[in-house]
Predict the 3D structure of the following.
Amino acid sequence: MFKIGDKVVYPMHGAGVIEAIEEEEVLGEKKDYYVLRLPVGNMKVMIPIANGEGIGLRQVIDKQDVGKVLKLLKSSGSAMPTNWNHRYRANLEKIKSGNIYAVAEVVRNLARREREKGLSSGEKRMLENAKQILISELVLATELEEDKAKGLLDITFA
């Protein structure tokens, strides 16, 4: 169980800080919720505490792991399916996992593919979404501002 002030990652949405734990009634059923503030996009999300573990809610990585993520982003890309539909589904599963290394892999592979062959509009959206998820976690792990974290990603791909 997380507490107020914890930095956590909500798969498919990104990283945020738990700013409250509230009881809400939805469809006649009272449940406790984490109130998560996502700094990138300044969004507020309510997550049922009972579902937290099942949906992959986890702690933000620490500063030492940031170096591993950046190293992974610089490494050569892994083989991806040539069929865009299979590639899209495989990348979506990686993003849904909530694992930062899997998300970084998606960003690395799609960024390389974009430079070499171009991306479909769906894959472009996926790349932007994966970058936002990655940036949101880097912001909280390093305490950098969003634009500096974006710059860190840009330097990595330069």
Summary: The two ends are 40 Å apart (CA to CA). DSSP finds five helices and five strands in the chain. The chain has two domains: 7-59, 63-157.
